[in-house]
Design a protein that fits this description.
The protein is mainly alpha-helical. It has helices spanning 2-14, 20-39, 50-62, 67-86, 113-120, 130-143, 147-151, 181-193, 195-198, 218-231, 240-253, 258-265, 270-273, 275-291, and strands spanning 158-159, 164-168, 174-178. A hairpin with a 5-residue loop joins strand 2 (164-168) and strand 3.
């Protein structure tokens, strides 16, 4: 089964040109899939029935995987099976009618606007990387970009005179996102005062650089965000995606239309963006319950 998975991943890379991150995600999910059946004594994909596949999905649920993770695994299995059919390795597609079990969809964490302000203002201008960190946090909250998009951003992708950033998203799709006044000011300050020092011995064109003059990693961004959140006393479970969720939620709270938010986030399907309307409703309900005399 692992050999077939390797052939499938080669197909995704060569024939479909998917990104390394996407292929790595497929590899992780399908290796887990193969390991589950190997532990059950099934090593040949032809032996796997629809019932076996359903049991595997429920196994993931019983192991307390997030609903989004289970859905992603299911999608990977379906694409894998379609590949096996197209290559005539299998005659019947056992995954064709496979459905995900009813799952509880938890709403993503968001920060209040006041909490975001505390975090983006936490980096001190006099600290070693304060200007860089503030610019990166301000830009992420201002644009709602994914952390992979932020760390991959090139200096030429910025047009601060006009106030826009050109972002290369999933599947290589580009989108143009406005940059607000505060983020523009923070990035300009970083570009003028700090970035020239970081790239003194490097020709790297990425916007945000490490002390070695190379682009910062996603892990570094995550650690940096958690450090500043902790410094200002925020104990919520925060990831870089929390800023993205907060960006979308705050826009909708202020009256932005869903289509515009979808375009700025780079969602292919508006149903993905609609989760933020659910967050908004849940937050309003919580506020009503907390403050209404008879809530």
């Amino acid at each position: 089964m692992l050999t077939l998975i390797d052939q499938f991943l080669d197909y995704l890379s060569v024939e479909r040109g998917l990104s390394r991150n996407t292929i790595a995600s497929y590899r992780l999910d399908l290796t887990k899939f193969a390991g589950y059946f190997a532990s059950s004594g099934i090593k040949n994909i032809r032996q796997v029935t629809k019932r076996d596949l359903t049991k595997y999905i429920y196994f993931l649920k019983d192991e307390s995987y997030a609903s989004s993770t289970i859905s992603r695994n299911l999608a990977a299995i379906k694409v894998f099976y379609r590949f096996l059919i197209s290559e005539r390795i299998l005659k019947e597609n056992a995954a064709a009618a496979l459905e995900s079990p009813r799952l509880r969809h938890s709403l993503p964490n968001v920060l209040d606007a006041s909490e975001v302000v505390k975090i983006v203002e936490a980096p001190g201008a006099r600290s070693a990387f304060g200007l860089r960190d503030k610019a990166a946090l301000e830009l992420m909250y201002a644009t709602g970009m994914r952390v992979s998009e932020i760390v991959s951003l090139m200096t030429e992708n910025l047009n601060l005179d006009v106030g826009f950033v050109r972002c290369a998203g999933k599947g290589g799709k580009e989108r143009i996102i406005p940059v607000g006044r505060q983020a523009k000011f923070a990035v300009e300050k970083y570009l003028a005062r700090m970035r020239p020092k970081l790239c003194a011995h490097s020709q790297d064109r990425h916007l945000f650089l490490s002390r070695l003059g190379k682009k910062i990693s996603r892990q570094s961004f995550w650690k940096m965000l958690k450090k500043y959140a902790k410094a200002v006393g925020i104990r919520k479970n925060i990831t870089p995606h929390t800023l993205r969720h907060s960006f979308a939620t705050h826009l909708l709270e202020k009256g932005a239309d869903l289509r515009s938010v979808q375009e700025m986030l780079g969602h292919a399907d508006i149903s993905t963006t609609q989760i933020y309307t659910h967050i908004n409703k849940a937050r309003l309900k919580g506020i009503h319950k907390k403050f209404h005399p008879r809530g």
